[in-house]
Design a protein that fits this description.
Shape: elongated
Distance between the termini: 20 Å
Mean pLDDT: 89
Number of helices: 15
Low-confidence stretches: none
Number of domains: 3
Largest sheet: 5 strands, mixed
Radius of gyration: 29 Å
């Protein structure tokens, strides 16, 4: 009884092993005594059966055999609510699996890709995804965001091409910080997040800080939806901005100049990062070749000097000197236009960048999470669609993951 999830008045009334299928199927017939009264699913009042509808659920395997529970489920006639189909104790409404089967499935998908879990349990991944999505949605519906005061957000690729998911995290949560994820990127995602938090106990005016990148659409969305929040541009995005500029200069310059070998990856690192011998030699050769790429790389490396400032006053002074240094370094060179554009972006957002020295938050966690999401996507060789990718993001890094452990 306990192994099947049965409760009175339900009991096992018949069993058989179907050997015509491979693997074999253990068929368990469940029923009740004739004349039994059942509780109305709306009010709980005892009611007699109006008629019956036969249903079958996949249960946990019995050794190597697939196991199925079949029962005739009564529709009761309630004096208050009319005819209603009752709920059974071993399965949730609308599911083709027993609760015990779904519990094991959720345990597996927390540890392996859904496709692998589906093969292990010998069901289609599509059916298993529906189970996972149901419980994630149920867990998220219980999410309490009434204490939300600071959040960070960034986009992550959901598949090849221009397909993105924007992920929002509660900066105060030390673990499992993801609270919302939505397809796309840009201003509309911020508006959707505002609607989401309002449904979960938070008000936009209670948000005092937002950590994000320098995307104009993101910043516009924050300004419109969270007007009381200070915006902090995380230092990671500043370094990323100039790293991309260096790479653009290198790509253009290599079309008409000889480049040291291994330079492509070397310039994407900072001088103190671990490097291969070839990458270290490439950086040494870079200066000797008198390439514009060398100037762009020196500018990028100078950023670390700003980052090491101990106070906001020191950071502001270093930022001013960095701007002067960069202008002198790039001069009027057309080849260094990407660096010039990066510098203009830095100047435009300088106050938001300096906010990093006043803030206790950093978006480094967001970048670390992005790595986890992309690693999961790689292991799964991609997800069926954006919705399944978002579900897995919740499974990996949202409070829903903790709630699901007790489901």
């Amino acid at each position: 009884m306990l192994g099947l999830g049965l409760q009175a008045p339900w009991k096992l009334i018949d069993q058989s092993l179907n050997t015509e299928h491979s693997p074999y199927e253990l068929q368990l017939q469940v029923g009740t005594e004739r004349g039994e009264l059942y509780s109305c699913p709306e009010c709980g009042a005892p009611c007699s059966a109006h008629d019956f509808k036969e249903k079958t659920w996949r249960h946990l395997n019995f050794f190597q055999h697939h196991c199925y529970i079949t029962a005739k489920i009564p529709r009761v006639h309630c004096k208050t609510h009319g005819v209603r189909l009752i709920e059974v104790p071993w399965a949730r409404p609308g599911s083709g699996f027993t609760l015990l089967f779904e519990e094991v499935a959720l345990t597996l998908v927390r540890e392996m890709p859904v496709n692998a879990a589906a093969k292990f349990m010998e069901v289609t991944d599509k059916r298993l995804w529906r189970v996972v999505e149901h419980y994630v949605e149920q867990a998220l519906s219980r999410l309490d965001l009434s204490s939300l005061q600071a959040f960070g957000f960034d986009e992550t690729a959901s598949k090849r091409g221009h397909n993105y998911v924007t992920v929002f995290i509660d900066m105060a949560r030390k673990t499992l910080p993801v609270v919302f994820a939505i397809p796309g990127k840009g201003k509309q995602t911020v508006s959707e997040f505002k609607t989401f938090i309002e449904k979960h106990g938070a008000k936009p005016e209670q948000v005092l800080e937002v950590v994000c990148d320098m995307s104009p659409s993101f910043l516009s969305g924050v300004k419109d939806e969270f007007p009381k929040a200070n915006v902090t541009v995380d230092w990671f995005h500043v370094v990323q901005l100039f790293t991309r500029a260096v790479d653009e200069v290198r790509k253009e310059e290599r079309k008409h100049s000889d480049m040291p070998k291994a330079l492509r990856w070397a310039v994407l690192k900072n001088a103190e990062s671990p490097m291969t011998d070839k990458q270290a030699q490439a950086l040494l050769d870079l200066e000797q070749y008198e390439l514009e790429t060398a100037k762009a790389w020196r500018v990028k490396e100078k950023l670390r000097w700003i980052r090491e400032a101990k106070t906001i006053q020191a950071a502001r002074w270093r930022l001013t000197n960095f701007i002067k240094f960069t202008l002198d370094e790039i001069g009027s060179s057309d080849a260094l236009e990407p660096v010039r554009k990066a510098l203009a972006t830095l100047e435009k957002h300088s106050e938001r960048i300096l906010q990093r020295w006043s803030s206790t938050y950093t978006n480094a966690r967001m970048e670390g999470l992005n790595s986890l999401f992309q690693a999961a996507r790689s292991r799964a060789r991609g997800y069926r669609n954006t919705a399944t990718f978002i579900t897995m993001i919740y499974m990996i890094a949202s409070p829903a993951a903790e709630i699901l452990k007790s489901t």
